[in-house]
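Researcher: I'd like a candidate sequence for this fold, 231 residues long. If you have to choose between options at a position, lean toward the conservative one.
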């Protein structure tokens, strides 16, 4: 998988791409990430990428020329499966979306900045708009890292234990169950007996029920009526 990120703050990605899961994914040759400085396509002597909005008002708006130039340059080199714009008014980012994106080959991720981007960018270039939550950030860099981490860990071979990703929260439409490790008793708190029994069928049933109970308590919105009836 290849991901091309477009940002006015490319240095923001330096540390995250040098450490952690994204660095592992790149080192294994399974994910290739390239960060492009939008200012390289800026206008004039000062490489301008933004301007004041028509009609007045506060804030600055990303101009269309640099974004078009950058994306058209990338598209001249290869075909892309999606051009993703990270924006508060996009569709909510969730696990099924991460699953679908992980199966694609080439992605462009456009990080917004300032007040907005020129709407013609969204109309002509963007194929998918994603929001990571009902909150406004200073730019799309943090959401881009979140998206890349969520997607990269699903690429086969990135995680040491690929099965782990299949049992994470949201993969089955609900939260994951509780987990315990050694010691079996700590400060008077004991691990549930069933987890020490070695009876795999009973353990799997306990985990299923526990996941349902946790989801009902913490995120009941995730449960359909059929699952609510199981509790």
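Model: Candidate sequence:
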């Amino acid at each position: 998988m290849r991901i091309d990120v477009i940002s006015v703050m490319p240095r923001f990605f330096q540390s995250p791409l040098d450490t952690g899961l994204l660095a592992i994914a790149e080192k294994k040759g399974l994910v290739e990430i390239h960060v492009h400085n939008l200012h390289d396509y800026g206008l004039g002597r000062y490489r301008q990428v933004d301007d004041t909005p028509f009609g007045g008002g506060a804030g600055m708006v990303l101009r269309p020329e640099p974004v078009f130039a950058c994306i058209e340059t990338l598209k001249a080199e290869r075909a892309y499966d999606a051009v993703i714009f990270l924006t508060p008014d996009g569709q909510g980012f969730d696990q099924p979306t991460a699953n679908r994106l992980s199966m694609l080959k080439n992605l462009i991720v456009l990080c917004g900045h300032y007040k907005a981007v020129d709407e013609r960018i969204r109309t002509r270039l963007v194929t998918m708009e994603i929001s990571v939550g009902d909150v406004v950030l200073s730019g799309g860099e943090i959401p881009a890292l979140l998206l890349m981490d969520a997607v990269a860990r699903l690429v086969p071979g990135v995680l040491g234990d690929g099965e782990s990703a299949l049992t994470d929260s949201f993969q089955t439409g609900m939260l994951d169950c509780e987990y315990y490790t050694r010691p079996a008793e700590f400060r008077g708190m004991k691990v549930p007996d069933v987890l020490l029994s070695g009876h795999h069928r009973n353990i799997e049933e306990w985990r299923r029920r526990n996941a349902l109970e946790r989801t009902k308590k913490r995120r009941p919105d995730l449960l359909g009526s059929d699952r609510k009836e199981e509790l």
